[in-house]
Fold each of these.
Amino acid sequence: MAALGWLTPRRRSATARSVLAGEAAAEAARKTSHELELEREAAAAAAAPAEPEFPVAGDVRAAAFFDLDNTVMQGAAIFHFGRGLYKRKFFQRRELARFAWQQAWFRLAGVEDPEHMQDARESALSIVKGHRVSELMSIGEEIYDEYMADRIWPGTRALAQAHLDAGQKVWLVTAAPVETATIIARRLGLTGALGTVAESVDGVYTGKLVGEPLHGPAKAEAVRALAAAEGLDLARCAAYSDSHNDIPMLSLVGHPYAINPDTKLRRYAKERDWRLRDYRTGRKAAKVGIPAAAGVGALAGGTAAALALHRRRR
């Protein structure tokens, strides 16, 4: 057994050099541990959102304002409404062809043409003149199911739901008739809607507007008036739109969003570091003169819709 003694570790007393080595190792370990902790904190900070959580849960002095056409819904509500009225024989095929062309142009260009929108409003007013408000509201519910429900942008819908989940009110703000906007807001579970008000006497449409269409600066005035009535702090509110025409409304709030923006709004938003979201599956060409495939499809689809409805009627 003595021959195996060399395998047994010998007990040695600590020397000054071994003490120094041990202390140096302990110090290095502490330093390395501290450096690793700093790296973990830096990584966590880099992974965290660059901006504070929004919307802020429980902030009842904040609200959200959403444009409707091409922001919440693909296309223009008034054109879908016109298509539904044609199906119910409120007007003739010539008017439908005009509605179909305007809708196709709107989807192709992705912007609101003032002349088209004015023509559509005048057509709608002449069509509903003499009809009861209650009748059009009932028909509007049916038209929503037929032509609008499947055209809601899921991404924008999720943004609105985030505000609702945070306990905030959410309003549509649109040039569409307030009756149509109210139906859409109710179906989406939103708070309500600001829209163009058509004059009625004893519950019957006169064919005139109260004031002017809720468009451009008028939207901003409507939001400002509602915020004052509701006790909202506009600096804590959010607004969402696709159109440069809504820059006055977007500029009112502390949290403006450009949704599916047209060229002018995209440029304006980037210059001011506004948030941008684009939920279109096919990005539209930079210029209207160079249509994307999705735009060509919309043009063909609008024409086909007019022809299909004409055949069905015959």
Amino acid sequence: MAIAKAERLMNLALCLLGARRPLSKRELRGSIEAYLEAGSDDSFNRMFERDKDDLRELGLVIETVENLEGEVGYLARRDSNRLPAITLDAEEAAALGLAAKVWQQARLAGAASGALQKLRAAGLPEDVDPYGSHGALEPRIPVHEAAFEPLMLACRDRRPVVFDYRKASAAHPETRYVEPWALECWRGHWYLAGFDRERGAERVFRLSRITGKVRARGTGFTAPVPDVVTVRETVRGWAGETADRSALIRLRSGAGYPLRARATKVRELGDGWDELEIPYGHGLDAWLVEFGPDVVVLEPAELRADVVDRLRAVAKG
């Protein structure tokens, strides 16, 4: 029934847009098959009025015109139903091109490419290449996690989800019930910020630690959604970018360049090791574990313990 109605609305819209003069109800009924099959005049009138209202809600401008004989006709003028021409300068086209090139995987890649093709068909200047190179650096946002697309749709639709999540310090995953707020890419890793229903607080989840499928669960959020700036700062803090103290580590010479870039002090120890003082914030233990045997935490003691716990969890599999 939905398909039949959509087809009927499309046929009515085409009739009204293609007419050079106002068309009466009688003429429209004789031109559209679905109206010809209406059982009675009353049935047709009700159907036509509903369809006309639906088209107007969709944005079609339909004029009602009365001729000299008092007969009412309907017309959708093309100039009243045509969007203004799209004009882009070179800088705007370059920005759109960069945005399209950022996405290499997931659903957004096809959407971005299709949007640029439509802009080209709509009159994008031929001397502007939105896919061309506009600098020495070319942005890329890789999306390898299977959880990305269902979580992106859940964030868009404000739909709670459930998934199994394995913390870096845990040997086995736990089931989490989350109201997803936003996805953020931070230093090459994707994070989900949201409200954890069981814990009653906001949490950040790294997508690479989500195991199995992401399933939709119920409808409606129970907690307010913060603005995007707050979410971004939350991810930044959980990813270890907000530091309020320092940590002392030993780092193998010639390794751990990202750590060296953040170090506030570096001292050569000899025997293939250096001593670094680096900012210490939430998530630093998870980051240090990624460097494996090239890093040894000296202090503080709680950071050393957290790193050891994470390494034991990895060893347990």
Amino acid sequence: MVGVPKLTPADAVAAVRNPLAFIADRWTPDPRTVRRAALAALVMSVVIVVTGGAVRLTGSGLGCPTWPECTAGSLTPTTALSYHSAIEFTNRMLTYVLCAAVGWAIIAARSEKPYRRSLTRLGWAQFWLVMSNAILGGVVVLVGLNPYTVAAHFLLATALITVAAVMWQRTREGDGEPRLLVGKAVQQLVWALVVVSLLLIAAGTVVTGAGPHPGDSGEVERIDVSWSGVAELHAVFAWIVVSLTFALWFFLKGVSAPQGPRDRVRDLFLILLGQGVIGYVQYFTHLPTVLVGLHMFGSCLVWIGVLRVLLSLRERAEVTADVPAQSYDAVSASIAGPK
């Protein structure tokens, strides 16, 4: 049985001054562990969006009427508050689970050998996005669920999903220079798909801000536009995304593109089919809450699918060049913030 090394006073000081470097000096995670940590952060970034949608759809947005406390003088819901408070408070607590997942991704990336600065940067980018969105979430509560702040809250969550998805992809490839697998025409078509997908997501936030789910049972400000008109515009963007994906699949097949991009486009097309069915059913059934929640989950999957298509257009090999000899401490100094 391997004994646990004794912690000296010098070790304790080093752990306090630079805990990430201290852990990295004593632990080398398996590459699968790093990938799983990045995937856990991505999964939690989606979960927090879905639970945030549940808060809105159950009218629990002001279940905790203040922030950072749940109610004046109490961090947790009191017996005087309703079940809406429990729903809102649970969503707030899940932010800590998200922080733990992102923290695990940062520690795993920081401890991987050889050290990959690009992964650590992506992990810290997620951390700052989580912190920023937590503050913005507090602002959303304090301004009484103003629809524009709610839309910004969702878009910032989408940014978090973006960085988490990129980090997950980067854990499965090397740090070599990217080598394109497709021609310029395919690249332009995929970038058009990305842009229209962003417009689709943005239009979706306006539909939510003008629609019949304000997020609370009380009087809540709404975006002063025609809900049905914006929903139709949202549907137009959705059809453009589907058409671009369909055209892209045939184009890649016609030019005998590598299997990777073709598989990612196929996956995206299947996600879009499911999302489209849910979208039209919820529209014609007057937005039942369960279907709206599934549609929000689907929007996360659509965006991840689009990102995977974009990232599949290139490959990165492992870096094989010799690294100049230097102490690991020198490489990992001052890592208490994003690198």
Amino acid sequence: MYDGIPRPVSSPPALSRHRTLRVAATAIALSATLLTGCAGDQDSADKPRSAASSLKGFPVTIDNCGTRTTYEKPPERAVTIHQHPAELMLALGLKDRMVGTAFPDSAVLPRYRKDFAAVPELAKKEPSFETVLNAEPDFVYGGYGSAFAEKEGRSRKAFADAGIDTYLNREYCGKKRISMKDTYAEIRAIGTIFGVRERADKLVGDLQQRVERTTRAVRGTPDVPVFVYDSGDKAAFTAGGKGLGTEIIRLAGGRNVFDDLDEVFGDVSWEQVVARKPEVIAIYDYAGAGGVERKKQFLLSQPALADVPAVKHKRFVVLPLTATVVGVRPPYAAQDLARALHPEKFW
């Protein structure tokens, strides 16, 4: 499973703790609800039961990737590791709850650029445990599995021992195939944790309408065979059937030629790429990946790929990696890809 770290190659494209106590919960017993999260088999909020709280909707209990957390009140000082959790929080209007971001791996969406710039950047890549603690967070939200790398001292247990709650993007719980429904469930889970469920529901509704417009536009068109090129030279590192990328391609009126690869990401041979005759190549773009133009030139320079329809006709589509993982971008990515695969359906 992809962990947010570029896969190294040997030729182009070359890729690539102090306050430990969190702010104590001060809720006074009155009345509220307890929600047990289990949407999409991973996270959500269920039917409420009677509980004591001074805040409406709290305490709330969320199950996330095997970690069960009860929030007595919404987090007040959040740190996001990786860009897509940051953009999701900004989309929910939670800038005032963010005390740090880390690892921006693509250009920030224009609508969030100003707010994103107002949040302190803790590190260009994953920050150290000490760096995160120095920001004095009460909540850390990780986008890729590497956010909580045990070997780097950033395990979820280490944060819990320091009194800090954590949440990992559901795509890295590793239990099932990911679909657009997981994007909606992720938004609602974060909305529940931060006490902004109405905002989350509105955002989900807007994104669902965008997807519906896209699928309606391409309905009845032949599926376009698409090969996802992430990286690699001796072998191709591509998106498999378990990842959200495959769902995005399907919604856009295409078909991932490696949708039978039972992984989020995995290696395939170039001979397999040739045999599956993709008509379009979707190039994933992210920081440290060597650059889109280098990737294109690599593909175009390989004699073995010369007769692949996508290479022969230079049909390349660029997708930021952050647009293909659980967050606010996938519905937009489906729309952008649909325009590239079926331009005649969009004016």
